[in-house]
Amino acid sequence: MTMSQLSAISEVTRQDVEDLLFEEAELLDDWKLDQWLTMYTDDARYVVPPTDDRDADASSSLMLIDDNRMRMGARVDRLNSRKAHREYPHSNLRHLVSNVRLDSPDRDELSVKASFAVYRSRAGRDMCYFGRYRYLLVIIDGRLLIRSKRVELDMTTLRSTGDVGVIL
């Protein structure tokens, strides 16, 4: 990351957050998944609720994806291998992130919302996923990291796009 070291979450600017989100998008687009994983804390959580209940709680609802850091690492390992037949060769991806909004910092965390569109091209099919990201960001050792990411899809069905196995 090219930004300077940060000592308090209250020092984080929208530019800092946008740099982080744009870096994440670029790493995913370039299939640099091992580097992408380093953007997350050891206690990270990655959640994609069902399309019919964007506000679903993972403790009481079945999620499309509900990964802790260990499962995120396993997903990266699988996607990086030839064992992920649905992703070998890899999809062409393009992540577009916009409308970044920061809430007031709460203790050591910063809540962030952003809109997204992810274009995916694979095996002659073009797909688009779109919706809103919700992040909790923290500073660890002077570095802005992602503690949690929630991907709320605005689509009413996934039938036309296929699966969400590729990281959104």
Secondary-structure map with pairings?
Elements: H1 14-29, H2 33-37, E1 40-48, E2 65-68, H3 69-80, E3 92-102, E4 110-122, E5 125-140, E6 143-153
Parallel strand pairs: 1-6
Antiparallel strand pairs: 1-2, 3-4, 4-5, 5-6
Order of helices and strands: HHEEHEEEE
Instruction: Please estimate the helix content.
Output: 10-25%
Task: Identify the strand order in the major beta sheet.
Answer: 2-1-6-5-4-3
What class do helices, strands and sheet pairing give? alpha+beta
Q: Sheet with the most strands?
A: 6 strands, mixed
- Poorly predicted sequence stretches spanning 5 or more consecutive residues: none
Mean pLDDT: 88
Structure report:
There is one protein chain. The chain has a 6-stranded mixed beta sheet with strand order 2-1-6-5-4-3. It has helices at 14-29, 33-37, 69-80; strands at 40-48, 65-68, 92-102, 110-122, 125-140, 143-153. The chain is of the alpha+beta class. The chain is globular and about 45 Å long. Strand 4 and strand 5 form a beta hairpin.
Keywords:
single chain, 168 residues, alpha+beta, six-stranded mixed sheet, 3 helices, 20% helix
Short description:
The protein has three helices and six strands; from the N terminus they run H-H-E-E-H-E-E-E-E.
